[in-house]
């Protein structure tokens, strides 16, 4: 591992989101391994299950206060149009509900408050999460479409300046990041639906495991220092 990669890894792990994506990877890898080895190696499966649960609880603790991030995002980047501003409000409101009730879900899971509340808190948290992700995805598709239109317009121009070429490269970079965001949000939406309306597909270990890893690795890519 060269010095540049090590430096980037240090910067990545210094971020709250960087640590979260790393621990999320542990959580869902251990979930898949537990499912795979449970029939043949129950003792090892139990250890991986404990790792999964510990990773999930530690992520909840580490996200304390995260619901306030939505207010800051709305203040800094409310959206360039009325429709994007509305989508920003709805998506961030859903995410704030998710993170806020996730605090109480964590307390219920560790036994600090009545554990019987866990199912109800999980539903409210996951519902807010799902609503937020739906509007985040809609907003990202709108912005992707706008970026494509802007790029086509510049490419059709007979006299492209150096500034236009630079802008095209910027649009392409933003497109990749938005596609990563869509992948992460859709994957997390599957996980949220599994909590809201349990069903054989979304609640299958493989679906949850792959969704968790897609979300973690897409977030890893977005947060990795350029």
UniProtKB/TrEMBL annotation:
Membrane association type: Multi-pass membrane protein
Chief site of localization: membrane
GO cellular component: peroxisomal membrane
The keyword Transmembrane is annotated on this UniProt entry: yes
Keywords attached to this entry: Membrane, Peroxisome, Peroxisome biogenesis, Transmembrane, Transmembrane helix
Transmembrane residue ranges: 82-101, 121-144
Extent of the signal sequence: none
Example of a GO MF term: identical protein binding
Subcellular location: Peroxisome membrane
InterPro entries: PEX11
GO BP term (any one): peroxisome fission
Pfam family, one: PEX11
Protein transport recorded as keyword: no
Subunit structure: Homooligomer. Interacts with ARC5 and FIS1B on peroxisomes.
General function of this protein: Involved in peroxisomal proliferation. Promotes peroxisomal duplication, aggregation or elongation without fission.
Family: Belongs to the peroxin-11 family.
UniProt-listed PANTHER family: PEROXISOMAL BIOGENESIS FACTOR 11 (PTHR12652), PEROXISOMAL MEMBRANE PROTEIN 11B (PTHR12652:SF17)
Name assigned to this protein: Peroxisomal membrane protein 11B
Organism, as annotated: Flemingia macrophylla
């Amino acid at each position: 591992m060269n010095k540049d990669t090590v430096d980037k890894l240090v910067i990545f792990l210094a971020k709250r989101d960087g640590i979260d994506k790393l621990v999320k990877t542990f959580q869902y890898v251990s979930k898949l391994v537990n499912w795979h080895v449970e029939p043949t190696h129950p003792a090892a499966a139990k250890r991986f299950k404990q790792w999964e649960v510990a990773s999930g609880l530690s992520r909840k603790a580490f996200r304390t206060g995260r619901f306030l991030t939505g207010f800051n995002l709305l203040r800094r980047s409310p959206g360039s149009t009325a429709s994007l501003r509305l989508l920003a409000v709805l998506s961030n409101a859903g995410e704030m509900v998710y993170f806020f009730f996730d605090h109480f879900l964590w307390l219920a899971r560790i036994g600090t408050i009545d554990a019987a509340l866990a199912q109800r808190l999980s539903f409210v948290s996951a519902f807010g999460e799902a609503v937020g992700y739906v509007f985040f995805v809609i907003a990202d598709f709108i912005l992707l479409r706008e970026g494509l239109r802007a790029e086509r317009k510049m490419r059709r121009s007979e006299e492209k300046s150096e500034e236009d070429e630079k802008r095209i490269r910027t649009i392409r970079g933003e497109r990749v990041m938005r596609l990563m965001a869509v992948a992460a949000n859709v994957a997390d939406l599957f996980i949220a639906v599994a909590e809201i309306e349990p069903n054989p597909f979304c609640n299958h270990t493989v679906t949850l495991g792959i969704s968790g890893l897609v979300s973690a690795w897409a977030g890893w890519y977005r947060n990795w220092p350029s």
